[in-house]
Design a protein that fits this description.
The protein is an alpha/beta fold and 413 residues long. The chain is 34% helix and 27% strand. The strands form five sheets. The protein has an eight-stranded mixed beta sheet, with helices on both faces. Bound molecules: adenosine-5'-diphosphate, aspartic acid (ASP) and magnesium ion. Magnesium ion binds next to loops.
């Protein structure tokens, strides 16, 4: 019997009516002769609301602390737990059998990196036992447990990771990601009005787009899908239209130079000034930062005349609190005139396409589009299949639009 894993994001389960619509989809897949597993996110903005509540509680007598990470995860897993129970009830109310499981109940074990834990194993037996009885299995996305039983979460958008990991261990025929847009677009359709839906995109292109700001799919989920060759079908929970297939690369994909553009907002540049210019310093700085599980990007080093260097890099706002702790420790250890400066309000605009491997002139076309729109490029980084420019956050939306149009991404292929 074919096996489908469906995932419904927050908007798609935001109220009772939508939960019923999602339930209907799961039932309809079952009636077509599939075994069905459903992964759900927290309802609507629940996760954001819980984070906000935590902030309020962590401010006391005019002093704000960072919420303890373990407690934050303890709080956030409750969001998905509400949805699984309601989804199972909705399916039962529509006359079918369903059972809900938390991450812990299906033995979804992660490491102990609270707020960005990595999945280590899933016990598929309990899921299969239910599926073979004809029951629809509902699983809480975004959460797991450590070996010692503490709750963890998998990073924002982590229900995507649950979807693909569950799909991979069960050997699913397809992972369907139901969201609030019709599929993957050439750019975020909420920013670029003439963005066009893409029919098929390679894992590598999607990996880059996700990492560069296309929040529709979490990067880790795409990594997983690529590793285990699980196809993902991203589609709209509110209509029946065919969405976007994320699949292994095919030779014809290289004919398209640029597949999509993305914007990553809310970046901060950190510059560590007057760092001693000697071997091992960069290794130490970035080793300490990595040990704190903070991801940095766009590293640049400038050498001054006085045997010191300035090292700068960008980081997402969300990582700043953790990063500052490490950077303060490093600057203290290095002593002398070493100090850190933070420059917020940056964004990164990028174009992605496997066709860049065989076509030239992409960078020049992108830079010209930005220049014509009077957008200053502060830093450039490239890989085999992407070009990214750091710009002012204020100009982010405009930059995305002009770059999108420079490559005529809105036009039918
Ligand atoms: P869900 O709650 O279903 O997980 P998300 O809000 O996490 O949904 O992701 C869907 C959103 O991702 C869309 O509403 C859209 O604004 C945004 N998005 C960003 N880039 C893209 C893109 N290239 N294609 C489609 N959606 C995108
Ligand atoms: N509820 C979590 C979040 O908002 C996980 C998810 O939706 O994928 O990030
Ligand atoms: Mg999401």
């Amino acid at each position: 019997m074919p096996l489908i894993v469906q995932k419904f994001g927050g908007t798609s389960v935001a109220d009772a009516e939508r939960i019923h619509r999602a339930a209907r989809r799961a039932i309809s897949a079952k009636e077509k002769g599939n075994q069905v597993v459903v992964v759900v996110s927290a309802m609507g903005d629940t996760t954001d609301d819980l984070i906000d509540l935590a902030r309020q509680v962590c401010t006391y007598a005019g002093n704000e602390i960072q919420p303890p990470k373990r407690e934050m995860d303890q709080l956030l897993v409750t969001g998905e737990q509400v949805t699984i129970a309601l989804m199972a009830m909705a399916i039962c109310a529509q006359g079918h059998s369903a059972i809900s499981f938390t991450g812990g109940q299906i033995g979804l074990v992660t490491d102990a990196a609270f707020s960005k834990a990595r999945i280590q194993s899933i016990n598929k037996q309990r899921i299969f036992d239910q599926l073979t009885q004809g029951t629809i299995v509902i699983i809480a996305g975004f959460q797991g447990v450590t070996e010692t039983g503490d709750y963890t979460t998998l990073g924002r958008g982590g229900s995507n990771a649950t979807l693909v990991a569950v799909g991979a261990v069960l050997g699913a025929d397809v992972c369907e990601n139901y969201t609030d847009v019709d599929g993957i677009y050439t750019a975020d359709p909420r920013i670029v009005k003439n963005a066009r839906k893409i029919d098929r995109i390679s894992y590598d292109e999607m990996l880059e787009l996700s990492g560069l700001g296309a929040s529709v799919l979490q990067t880790r989920a795409v990594e997983f899908a690529k590793k285990y060759n699980v196809p993902i079908h991203v589609r709209n929970s509110q209509n029946e239209s065919e969405g976007t297939w994320i699949v292994a690369e095919t030779p014809t994909m290289e004919h398209i130079v640029v597949s999509g553009a993305a914007l990553k907002k809310d970046l901060t540049r950190v510059t560590i000034k007057s760092v001693p210019d000697r071997p091992g310093i960069a290794a130490k700085i970035f080793g300490d930062i990595a040990a704190a599980n903070v991801v940095v990007d766009d590293i640049i080093q400038n050498i001054s005349d006085d045997n010191t260097a300035n090292i700068s890099f960008t980081v997402e706002h969300g990582e700043l609190a953790d990063l500052k702790t490490v950077v303060e420790r490093i600057t203290k250890e290095l002593g002398g005139g070493t100090k850190a400066i933070y420059h917020s309000d940056l964004a990164k605009v990028s174009v992605v396409g496997v066709g860049m491997r065989v076509h030239t002139g992409v960078a020049q076309r992108m830079f010209k589009a930005l220049a014509d729109a009077k957008i200053n490029i502060q830093n450039i980084s490239t890989s085999e299949i992407k070009i990214s420019c750091i710009i002012d956050l204020e100009q982010g939306a405009k930059a995305l639009q002009v770059v999108h149009d420079a490559f005529e991404l809105g036009k039918a292929r």
